[in-house]
Amino acid sequence: MIIVIYKIVTFIRQVFYQAICGIHFSLFKVSIGKNWKINGILFIRNSGTGGITIGKNFRANSGASNNPIGGDTILRLITKKEGKIIIGNNVGISNTTIFSENSILIEDGVLLGGGCLIWDTDFHSLDASIRGTSQDEGKTLPIVIKKKAFIGANSTLLKGVVIGENSIVATGSIVTKSIPDNQIWGGNPAKFIRDI
């Protein structure tokens, strides 16, 4: 009996999540393909002129109770200025923050572990004399994560990096430079470990 009640509650919760996420997509003008499933409720802010586009078969966990490994508390998709986020088909993401002022492209089949941070901007100037003033703008460069790459939990990808096709970023890594196809990198800063 308890299992039946649990399944009913889980089903009702999932229907609720899907409805709320659908409303968010509509409110923030997110284009999303068919057959998406999100466990939890997303945080979306789409104030950039580039917009947010998500392909078909998108899967996401968002919220502390929806990801057994924890990480960030929710999945955030945020654009500002000219920022755009493009997510391909068959992508899976858990509790990650993706923030774009330029461009972030996540190609087909990519997996992002819990608590990842993907930022295409420095947010603030590196020049201390203008930091905190009205001229305070960080440098921005596009990010590309190529097909079937896997980004381990709690990793950070910084502006201007390209993650190669099929490549793996080890858990907890800070990626400051591009990674070729079919390689494993890890550490802070991330360094080459081995070919796949």
From TrEMBL:
<comment type="similarity">
    <text>Belongs to the transferase hexapeptide repeat family.</text>
</comment>
<keyword id="KW-0012">Acyltransferase</keyword>
<dbReference type="Pfam" id="PF00132">
    <property type="entry name" value="Hexapep"/>
</dbReference>
<protein>
    <submittedName>
        <fullName>DapH/DapD/GlmU-related protein</fullName>
    </submittedName>
</protein>
<dbReference type="InterPro" id="IPR051159">
    <property type="entry name" value="Hexapeptide_acetyltransf"/>
</dbReference>
<dbReference type="InterPro" id="IPR018357">
    <property type="entry name" value="Hexapep_transf_CS"/>
</dbReference>
<keyword id="KW-0808">Transferase</keyword>
<keyword id="KW-0677">Repeat</keyword>
<dbReference type="InterPro" id="IPR011004">
    <property type="entry name" value="Trimer_LpxA-like_sf"/>
</dbReference>
<dbReference type="InterPro" id="IPR001451">
    <property type="entry name" value="Hexapep"/>
</dbReference>
